[in-house]
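Aim 2 progress update. The chain analyzed this quarter is reproduced below.
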Amino acid sequence: MRSLLRTLERATLRDIALVCLADALVGASFGAVSVSGGLPLWLPVALSVLVFAGGAQFAAVGIVLTGGGPLAAVVTGLVLNARLLPFGFTVADALDGPRWRRLLGAHLLTDESTAFTLLQSDPRRRRAVYWVCGLALFVVWNVAVLAGAAAGGLIGDTDALGLDAAFPAVLLALVLPSLADRRTRAAALAGAAVAVAATPFVPAGLPVLLALAGLLFAALPARPSGPNGPSGAPGLSGPAAAEDAGAARAAGAADVTGAAGAARLAEEIR
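Predicted structure tokens:
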């Protein structure tokens, strides 16, 4: 673990710590909501250790507390966690080693660990940030759930504290740097629009899966810039074309200035 920490930059470790802090608040609220709703203390603790998926845990407990059956709770959790399947493909390179290590790594797969891994390009750092984030979140989440469950109804109305917005806020902060790319931004906006539009008509969990349709926008080819590029310079586009255009204007101005000076000199000789 110490070698993994040395691989990462201090800023990355700080960001992971902030995410752990936010998740600790949500985990404590999950434990408190579960126990104050009438569930035994061991249930949220067991869910956190065995499932380790905040959204699925909240959905399952919510269904049980409103009178739903265990089967409905399990199916809802599976639907919500289905989004982790494509996540696993994107970070598969970070889960090397023997089978037991890959199984443990798969259990640590979360939205946050995936987001931090995708921000890294170096294979060694991808592996390090995945394991550091996954293990840290697992420990912090389970400790927070246990503390919240022990506190029971002391927290009161967790929605009034705004803790339900912690997950979306954390994930938005993680993906913001990636939205600088035009195609990624188009895919994210399209997926969000699909999810919002489908929410009133489909069961909980399905809008997240339907939002994957936004990936079609990311697969679209880049817009062609034409044979002469946007600025008319052969084979150049963007900053290079602008730089060449500026150089051409400067050269043209120099030619005009030189011609004017030559004309004045000829006029003086005459």
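The CA atoms of residues 93 and 127 lie 8 Å apart. The radius of gyration is 27 Å. These observations will guide the mutagenesis experiments scheduled for the next reporting period.
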